[in-house]
Design goal:
Blueprint: H1 27-41, H2 43-49, H3 56-80
Length: 81
């Protein structure tokens, strides 16, 4: 296949997902491989998070709400056992 291993992490260097194609590579398979790399890198979730400015107070509220939700889920799981 046309995949080259990425170099190790270096300070100050940003590694972006990418797929090297050869003439014989199937485009659909290569596109799927690229999408998987983008998902693994968390680029789309980061983009959605940064799409609009969020005040620090709103961020704290969301973080607390998420923690509360995780705790309730954990408690429900323990009670079901």
């Amino acid at each position: 296949m046309g995949v080259r291993p990425a170099a190790g992490p270096r300070e100050g260097v940003i590694s972006l997902p990418g797929v090297y194609l050869e003439e014989s590579d199937n485009f659909d398979i290569s596109l799927r491989r690229f999408k998987k790399q983008v998902e693994k890198a968390g680029i789309l979730s980061e983009l959605k998070k940064r799409q609009h400015y969020e005040k620090p107070s709103v961020m704290r509220k969301k973080k607390k709400a998420a923690a509360r939700k995780r705790l309730l889920k954990k408690m429900r799981k323990i009670n079901q056992m």
